């Protein structure tokens, strides 16, 4: 009886550990989704939404990567999603830095392999994001994101990777100059009226 009870406990612990390994961290997913959407907005493309089904696949593969010595892509030939992977240090701001590093790919030509994570992130036609992460050890982790419909499709880059929107600072500066100009004109009128008033007073004296 004691043996059976012990086996049941071991089984329940194993199930609990399995569920924990494959549970999606929605807090981390929210951070990455927010950071990616912030950069998509800079290029005028629609925001992505988190897809739980897609995320389960990401979570499963992240766990697999955490046990591997290399960070290989799951299936480069698949046509269901585009995938990006990042190894990160387990500390504050690490997930955001991964997204920032991907976005730095904009400095390269959009067809350059070094830009593939950037173009996948900005791809206009993608509407959903999957996310999963796992700890490699106490100091490092890995996360996987997948976009669907998939991006980085040959021949469709021009339509799906628009340039960054122009900033509005120039218009604000022009408005400020107009306001300053109007303010100077107002000051001239006040000064002119003061002189006329002074001349009129002296003339009457």
Low-confidence residue ranges: 6-20
Structural class: alpha+beta
- Examine the secondary-structure arrangement and name the CATH architecture of the domain at 14-148: 3-Layer(aba) Sandwich
Spatial strand sequence of the major β-sheet: 1-3-4-2
Q: State the CATH class of the domain at 14-148.
A: Alpha Beta
InterPro entries: CAP_dom, CAP_sf, CRISP-related, SCP_GAPR1-like
Keywords: Secreted, Signal
Subcellular location: Secreted
Organism: Drosophila melanogaster (Fruit fly)
Description:
The protein has 205 residues and is α+β, with helices and mostly antiparallel strands. The chain has helices spanning 2-21, 26-42, 52-66, 94-103, 116-122, 157-160, 169-204, and strands at residues 49-50, 82-89, 128-135, 140-148. It has a domain at 14-148: CAP (Pathogenesis-related Protein p14a, 3-Layer(aba) Sandwich). It contains 7 helices and 4 strands. Strands 1-3-4-2 form a 4-stranded mixed sheet. A hairpin with a 4-residue loop joins strand 3 and strand 4. Helix 2 (26-42) packs parallel to helix 4. Residues 6-20 have low confidence and may be disordered.
Write the layout of secondary structure elements.
Blueprint: H1 2-21, H2 26-42, E1 49-50, H3 52-66, E2 82-89, H4 94-103, H5 116-122, E3 128-135, E4 140-148, H6 157-160, H7 169-204
Parallel strand pairs: 1-3
Antiparallel strand pairs: 2-4, 3-4
